[in-house]
Design brief:
The chain has 21 helices and 26 strands. The protein is an alpha+beta fold.
Amino acid sequence: MKGDHSDLAQALNYIDPAALDYQKWIDVGMALHESGLSCSLWDTWSSKDMRRYHPGECARKWDGFGNGATKVTSGTIVAMARARGWEPHYASAEPDEALGWDDTVQAVSPAWADDIPVEDADEGPWDQAGQISDYLDALFDDDDHVGIVTRAWQRDGRWLPQKGTWAKTAGQLRQELAKCAGDVGKVIGDWPKEAGAWVRINPLDGKGCGNSNVTEYRYSLVESDEVPIERQRGMIEAMNLPCAAIVSSGNKSVHAIVKVDAGTDYDLYRKRVEELYQYCAGHGLAPDTQNKNPSRLSRLPGVTRNGRRQMLLATSCGAGSWTEWKDWVAETEDDLPDDVCDDWDAPIRLAPPLIGTEENGVLRQGQKLVLAAPSKSGKSFAIVDLAEAIACGGTWLGWPCAEGRVFYVNLEIADESFRWRQHVVWADREAHEDVGSGLDSIKRNFVRWDLRGHAEDMSQLAPRLIHRVLRRGPRGSFMAVIVDPIYKVNGGDENDAEAISDFTNQLDRISNECGCAVLYVHHHSKGSLGARRSADRMSGSGVFARDADAILDLSPIHVPSDRARRLLGRPDGGLDTAWRLTATLREFKTPDPVDLVWKFPRFYRDVTGSLSGFDVEGENPMAEANEKRRDRAATDNAAIIAAIRSAVGKCGNEPTRAEVLKRMNDDLDYEVTEENIKYWTTSKCKWSPFRAKNINGKWLLYDTNEPLPWGDDDEE
């Protein structure tokens, strides 16, 4: 019977027909047909692929569906849509996360799979011995010891199994079953009719029944009590699980004995079981995590349980092996673009610029940009400014921006602080009449997701982010996704090329599935300002420099202290800061560096050109060292002048060199020599205002800034 497929129309909104090859497009049509939905739904969805869509083609193919042996179920559409961020209405409201070994999976009630009736008739002929024998043949070699439990005890009204026996091999059991004349109790032992019987799913060593007695990790048990039993069977088939056997429990579940083919490698077994359970949970069949142990008991077919039969429903069904199943998963969920060779003469349609123009562009729509700058440099204000420029169609640092929706992932700033930044940046835009379509466009187009304190690795965040974006509209509804900053979500080690590659691949996934640009904020590595190339200043630059379509680097300009006041002084007496923005672009001509001034809360271009002659900090270490020496000397000289002036004031009307020298040595914490005081009070010392005159045999000091109290005798 057909299941409830009301969600499939919504699922199609998450699948771009233009991104599918021909066979996958056909699979979608066949799945819709098999689910009992209309051809018009397939046709309307297919028309989104304007390049390949032909009116009437869907109707012609529709009539031929369902006549062949091959059937494609709704699970195909569900898998495609979920891979692109769709969550059915039945899914848990909790965020997706990787399934840990000991985690509990919340059960759901999926509607995407077709129901398959479970044949467990309680009356009529029944080859019990044959069922057990077929089950043993499907799971075990003849010399494998098999653990069987036919004894049980009650607790709180539930029947629980005891340890059972494990002395017999599968070959011995099958021989005895063949001779038992239908009395299987002679072979396996009598069981409580209310409880049924159990079997351990993996072979044992004949010495016990614990995990340590398992000789080979062949199978895992997949069971879920919360989904209707007919739906369970349909989901197991739709997911093509590599089942050695499927058994009806005689109650409300089926037991799928799934091949994991881990040999004697327990770590591999755990890894594959986690992967299997994650896949099942992601597709709505929430497995009971208590069944992960390799020595786990499953229901033995061929016996009764409280008047109902534990039936062997199928053997060797689904994929033939774990490897074959993984290949199938990769193929069915493959949304890679077609390979082509016949598009040489097709028109080239580049995406329009997102930032800048065709003649002076920075980034195209759908591409990736990284803004890198030192810590506490104002880069978050800069990226908020860019987000508002896109949201309203305004300008950013002089470049015009295309107007569209922005999804801003804020990982670092408290939500109210972020809102304050939005407001102060917008107020500054209003003050400079750079508001594009106005405030209403900001309220409409700027979506914020505050995740401070909730950051996680991008491999976990990306699916949720995609889901959030696509929940607000179909693919292409947003112009840009902004991640600020990435150190919160990139896995930690920015020098691990493999880890950073995995991170940037997640950004590609966001861009592809959401149909938008991805902009992210990064920081400089320590001691990187001396690097000449802007791309080399980022932490982990080896990967990031190759990944982004546009790299914008913001580095401080070194303005000498003696010129900073004139160039960067504010009316309130403070100083603004100077910055140089350099760009490394993939598709546009690299522009000249842009000099900026940080005037809270925004950066502005230096239209005067006064900053162009200065170097970025660290680029000219010799000049910076010389300036530091000059600054230190000026400080020291000012202290000497103050000490001389103080000493002169204490000497009365005849401040001689000798007297001033004595008083300076009394006041300073270092020794001043006669040669020092002589040099400081002659014309050779350009920075000192003090000179000495020989008056009646005494070298008297005076301040050249003050009137002379004597004649014009020459100074020494």
